Amino acid sequence: MKPSLVVLAAGMGSRYGGLKQIDPVGPSGESIIDYSIFDAIRAGFGKIVFVIRRDIETQFKNSIGSKFEKLIPVHYVYQELDQVPDGFSVPDDRVKPWGTGHAILMAKSMVNGPFAVINSDDFYAKSAFELISDYLTKANDGTYSDYSMVGFILKNTLSKFGSVSRGVCCSDEKNNLIDVVERTDIFGEGNDIYYKDGDTKVSILENEVVSMNMWGFTPSIFTYLENMFKDFLLNHGCELKSEFFIPFVVDELIKSSKAKVHVLKSYDKWFGITYKQDKEFVINSIKKLVEAGDYPVRLYM
Q: Residue 13: its pLDDT value, please?
């Protein structure tokens, strides 16, 4: 069975200030999602599931989804605040989405085998899709919790224009994930990299492996997500800004021995649009890849 690709595209783009998922960055007006889907198709994925919001549905389908519908099966699911289990309610003043764990849970009805998850605004590069597609193709597609993630080298994932959040990963000698520590304020300074721990600046090695939310799962993850989301709502559901992040879910599963996660290392340069100033860098980076022959000048005719 060919793996599916779940694309998380419901983000509000609060720091960027716009619908960055469909911003043109390629020489023929392509968005970052266009390159991700192009790489996914040639890596062997068999279905795309977009997680979006209802308020961007028409714009997203016209600008993004319509390009792929003749190339690969495309489906849409919707992440909205009111999609909570029976017995739970949403605080009246809450506007922030419930997080990436909740977004993945929305794809349950459209996924029946191994699948990968990516962010819509991250450029992961060809080899990352090949790594995870190959692993998922060999994965057990039943209930066995044999998961995977593509880890990137920290120095290849920074923005020149502000701090970033990264899940710093520790793995054992068999490349199984042991720990994920979320660092929410990582930045470069000269030739060094630091993160903030309160008011303290802490040095961090440039070759640390970090998660960029490129995960590989079997459908067993949905049962865990359902149960853990209920626990999250019981403990944090009244908070206005708390989020149910997938790295927290994975971390709990591996520490409770309910799942193992194999780390697949990519040494490619990641890039994405976290801040508006990142866009020019992304455009120039893609231009170089096109000139090198890694991508055609026009992805889709």
A: 46
